[in-house]
C-alpha cells in the first residue's frame, strides 16, 4: 500500500503532551489556511510504500509509546491511516491523530475499529461562524479551492461531537496568529461556540502560539507571535466559557492555566 508521505520525527515530546511519540507528517490537505507552516506538504505528492513507515515505527518503538499522524491532513488518506494505525496497535503503540476535522466519517470508522486513542482537532474559528471559518481556511484568499466553508465548519462540529459521544480522548486547539485570528473577541467567540456545541465547559482547549515566519501567505510572514503572557490573557477570556484551558508556547511549553494565579 502507498502513502503520500512528507516526513518523520522519530522521537517527539511535543506532539502529544505527556507522551513520547513518533510523528508522521502526511501530504495533502483540503484547506489552504493562509498561516499554514507546512504548506510544502499541500501541493506535491511523494508516494512511498507503507512498509517504510512501519520500519520507522519499529525502529522508534523502544523509545516511544505512541504514534501521531499529522500533516497536512492525515485523514485524507483513509485506507493508509487505517492500515498504519492497525500496524501501530499490533506493535503496542497508542495512536493519536492531528486533524482539521473535515473527515468525520473516517474518524467514526477509526473509532469503531478501536484504532485511535486520542484526536487533536483544530478549531480554526468559531464553529458557528462560516465567514470566519472561510477566512481561517483560506476560502477567501485561495479561490481555486472550491470548498464550502459552511460545510467545512459543520464537519468540524460533527467531528467534535462524534469523538465526545464515543468517549475517545479529545483535545481541541486553536493556533493564534496576531491580527489574523487571535484577538480577544475572536478567541471569546471560539470558546463560546465550543461551549454551545458541546453543552459543556469541560472539553480540553489549547491556545497554541502560532508562528507565521513560514506562512503560506507571504504578507503574514512578518507577524510577531503572541507572547506567553498574551496567550494567558486570551485564556482568561476563554475561561468565561471553558474550564480546562492550556497555553502552548515556546517560552514554557504546554501549561494548564491555573486561573487562581493569572
Ligand atoms: S494549517 Fe490548514 S492548510 Fe495547513 S495542514 Fe493544517 S489544515 Fe491544512
Terminal Cα span = 50 Å
| Largest sheet report | 10 strands, mixed
Order of helices and strands: EEHEHEHEHEHHEHEHEE
Class inferred from helices and paired strands: alpha/beta
What is the total number of structural domains?
A: 1
According to CATH, what is the class? Answer: Alpha Beta
Radius of gyration: 18 Å
Task: Catalogue the unreliable spans.
Answer: none
The CATH topology: TIM Barrel
CATH superfamily, by name, is: Aldolase class I
- Helix % is 25-40%
Number of separate helices: 8
What average pLDDT do the residues reach? 96
Overall CATH architecture: Alpha-Beta Barrel
Strand content: 15-25%
Q: What ligands does this structure carry?
A: iron/sulfur cluster
Order of adjacent strands in the largest pleated sheet: 3-1-2-4-5-6-7-8-9-10
Outline:
globular
Write down how many β-strands occur, each being a DSSP E stretch of 2 or more residues: 10
Describe the structure.
The chain has 262 residues and is an alpha/beta fold. It has a single domain (2-256), classed as TIM Barrel. Helix content is 34%, strand content 23%. The chain contains 8 helices and 10 strands. The chain has a 10-stranded mixed beta sheet with strand order 3-1-2-4-5-6-7-8-9-10, covered by helices on one side. Helix 2 (50-60) packs parallel to helix 3. The longest helix has 18 residues, at 149-166. The protein is globular, with a radius of gyration of 18 Å. The structure holds iron/sulfur cluster.
Amino acid at each position: 500500500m502507498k502513502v503520500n508521505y512528507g516526513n518523520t520525527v522519530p522521537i517527539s515530546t511535543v506532539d502529544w503532551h505527556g507522551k513520547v511519540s513518533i510523528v508522521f507528517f502526511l501530504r495533502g490537505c483540503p484547506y489552504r489556511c493562509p498561516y499554514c507552516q507546512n504548506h510544502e506538504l499541500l501541493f506535491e505528492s511523494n508516494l512511498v510504500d507503507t512498509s517504510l513507515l512501519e520500519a520507522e515505527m519499529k525502529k522508534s518503538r523502544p523509545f516511544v509509546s505512541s504514534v501521531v499522524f499529522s500533516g497536512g491532513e492525515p485523514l485524507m488518506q483513509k485506507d493508509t491511516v487505517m492500515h498504519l494505525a492497525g500496524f501501530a496497535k499490533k506493535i503496542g503503540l497508542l495512536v493519536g491523530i492531528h486533524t482539521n476535522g473535515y473527515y468525520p466519517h473516517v474518524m467514526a470508522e477509526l473509532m469503531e475499529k478501536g484504532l485511535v486513542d486520542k484526536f487533536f482537532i483544530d478549531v480554526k474559528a468559531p464553529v458557528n461562524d462560516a465567514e470566519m471559518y472561510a477566512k481561517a481556511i483560506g476560502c477567501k484568499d485561495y479561490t481555486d479551492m472550491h470548498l464550502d466553508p459552511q460545510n467545512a465548519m459543520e464537519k468540524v462540529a460533527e467531528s467534535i461531537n462524534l469523538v465526545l459521544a464515543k468517549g475517545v480522548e479529545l483535545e481541541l486547539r486553536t493556533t493564534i496568529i496576531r491580527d489574523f485570528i487571535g484577538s480577544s473577541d475572536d478567541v471569546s467567540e471560539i470558546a463560546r461556540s465550543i461551549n454551545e456545541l458541546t453543552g459543556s465547559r469541560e472539553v480540553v482547549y489549547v491556545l497554541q502560539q502560532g508562528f507565521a515566519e513560514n506562512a503560506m501567505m507571504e504578507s503574514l510572514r512578518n507577524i510577531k507571535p503572541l507572547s506567553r503572557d498574551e496567550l494567558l490573557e486570551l485564556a482568561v477570556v476563554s475561561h468565561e466559557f471553558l474550564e480546562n484551558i492550556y497555553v502552548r508556547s515556546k517560552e514554557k511549553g504546554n501549561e494548564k492555566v491555573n486561573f487562581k494565579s493569572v
